[in-house]
Amino acid sequence: PQTIHRKDYAAPNYLVDTVEMGFDLEPAATRVATRIAMYRNPAAAGRDIVLFGEELELVALRLNGKTLAKGDYRLAGHVLTIPAAPAKAVLEIETVTHPDRNTSLMGLYVSNGNFFTQCEAEGFRKITFFPDRPDVMAKYTVMLRADKKKYPVLLSNGNLVEQGNLPDGRHYAKWEDPFKKPSYLFALVAGDLVCQEEKYKLKSGREVLLQVWVEEGNLDKTQHAMDSLKNSIAWDVDRFGLELDLDRFMIVAVGDFNMGAMENKGLNIFNTKYVLANPRIATDVDFANIEAVVGHEYFHNWTGNRVTCRDWFQLSLKEGLTVFRDQEFSADMIGTDSGRAVKRIDDVRVLRQAQFPEDAGPMAHPVRPDSYVEINNFYTVTIYEKGAEVVRMYQTLLGRKGFRKGMDLYFKRHDGQAVTCDDFRAAMADANKRDLTQFERWYSQSGTPQVDASARYDAKGKILELTLEQTCPATPGQKKKQPFHIPVAVGLLDAKGRDMPLKLEGESGADATGTRVLELTKARQTFRFTGVNEAPVPSILRGFSAPVVLKVDYSDAELAFLMAHDSDPFNRWEAGQRLAMRRLLNLTVAVQAARQSGHVVAVDTVLNNIEHDGALADALRATLNDASLDPAFRELALTLPSETMIAEQMEVIDPHAIHIARQFLRRSLARALRDDLLAAYRANRVPGAYSPDAASAGRRALKNVALSYLAELDDAEALSLAQCQDEEANNMTDRLAALAALLNSTASGKSEALQGFYDEFESEALVIDKWFTLQATARDADVNTVRSLAGHPAFTLKNPNRARSLIFSFCNGNPSAFHALDGNGYSFWAEQVIALNGSNPQVAARLARSLDRWRKYTPALQEKMRLALQQVASSPNLSRDVSEVVTKALA
Ligand code: B3K
Ligand code: ZN
Predict the structure, then answer these.
(1) Is 291 a catalytic residue?
(2) Which of 258, 262, 268, 385 to mutate to test the pocket of ligand 1 (most atoms within 8 A of CB)?
(3) Same domain, 187 and 61
(4) Are 112 and 161 part of one and the same domain?
(5) Which GO terms describe its molecular function (predicted)?
(6) Among all ligands shown, which has an atom nearest to the Cα of 841?
């Protein structure tokens, strides 16, 4: 397959004014008539019209009214070229597609009998031939025709301008989108759906119609999405002065969907997982995710749709920015400072768990990549989450007000345009009269920078010298890196744990107490704080002010001190994680040593004999019992770094040793904190009707983490707590937590509990997904468990949510079982990747990434992983998607 390079970007030869489309919707063969009014682009040299089309039957092609004969155009692969075309060209194209055979879920497809589209990134070309690239923006008018009984609802972008009946029981609807848009934002939906709708008054006084469309029977699950939409609309006005520009805004839920959701103009299409919720079927996390994703897609209306990307290398221009916006939205919805901090910690956990490994592996790429084979492989945590961190750094450097000025200038300059990440950076720089030249490296250099910090206190001179040194590891295609522009937020704590005044040498004026943002721009820099009256404990990278790995030599005592006192909640949490990580790594090494000396059976005894760890338990107890702390924060503090996170800290990954070590630490903490955990469990029951608000969710989270620790002890009291909770719970959060605790214990009656759960929720697909995940990630699950679940009548690879619930959950969420020494996990993985490759390349390529880090594992596992990768690489009919992933992994 061919590699596409950013440096080869060329403006399109022709631009498009208007697009008129007519659809005759039939599952087996849908006829599409398209009329494109084009004109030669003065900014381009070429005179050929270049269109893309995939898996289409071309029925007719006319240029300015004249039918084109075979010799008048060239069709090579997916590219249709009309050479030396006139300056103004009206193209009429008739194509036929086969939605019912479309298992890739790109372009026009059928899900549960209804029609849906997904066009980003390059799905529009599966509907018609078109200059399907984001820098071609046009106005669309769409006529939908279909059987009225089967498809009573016909939706597309923009406003409904006409509808009526046709002969033979058919009907039509005509939609007009008043805004120019790139083809990737086109959408249609046709089917038997119902909606919850509301008229909503904007701040400006204009009234808009909001609708959430679902299948009949799901109307009891739309309220939260509707509330989230209204909150999003209000928030974007308050925070960024951005108002909804349409009279009508629709969200539609679909059960078969490759990703989370899609921001089609005025017609957002969502995975049911991010729309449907009520206390019976959705967890607190589901409720929070729905709010975030509804917000995310809505915010795209400005950041992505009104201002879009010039080319797909600029994807983070809209995604990084929009993730940043949804993160801020969710934080503001919680409203409290501690809530904001909890949200920040959650986001950083995702970054570390998923993006740091990506940045250190074979698929590492800059936030603005230089090349790709398949663009769908670049909807990554780097583009999204690291991209959001990059946007956040502007705000950290410029302040909230300065950031807002930059946003205002960005829209003033670029509304209605397709632009680049450089344009965004220029708006931030110009609006604030700042030089952000060096900041560009966050877009062009891949890899996670490391910052080494060391402090030296001069008691005589009352000076604290803080030296920061940055490096960045080599990544594919990038051996040497230049220094980044890194905002490092720091504070200094006195012996009582209070923030000290901060004044850098040579500065005049009042001292700022609290936090200050240092700008690290060189490879090594020393910052000298003056008037520091006692030796402080520095708190560095507060709020995680940059996406870097911070190395500091803290003693255990200093970490415990920061855990107890830091005014910055992020670093307070971070100190606890550092302390826990230290223990976990020591324990892992001890497990390996014990194994080597033949003590396989006596690992526990060996671990019990290594220095007994009171410090961590004491620090966690203090946090657990500190009623002044937000329960949600205490839950995060009590949660140990995941096995994946521990793995990333090791030179050579030994998943089994990690698992044993972490389990050991969980058990010993449970023993040490038993009474406190029981007390926390009891104190944090939430009485009364269920509400997903952050405060209640935080209490449930703390209660349930306490339960999961207690269940490690396998004693009668803990198990009966879980059993009671399973029986009495009035919501899915508590149900699942209880069931997980039981499954991971030695309690009897597990299979009855699972069966009962299944029977109760058989008709709720999203809950059955949870049922599969629960079993795939259970502690005693192995590849045979998963194989037999894959044979369950409710399992199908064709539905992405279901495939993810079982296969992905096992391969990515149960490391010690997946990496079984016999390599059976890897053979299973290879089979599934190959099976998915045939039906849905995008989802297959996601699964293919589970072996990204194979070179970091123990030699025995490495070899087995390499064989599995090769098996996939050499299988026939490999999609571009999967091929790119495994080729890069093996390179
Ligand atoms: N923009 C879409 C993602 C499309 C993915 C295409 N493979 C969802 C989002 O980020 O909002
Ligand atoms: Zn997005």
Answers:
(1) no
(2) 262
(3) yes
(4) yes
(5) alanyl aminopeptidase activity
(6) 1
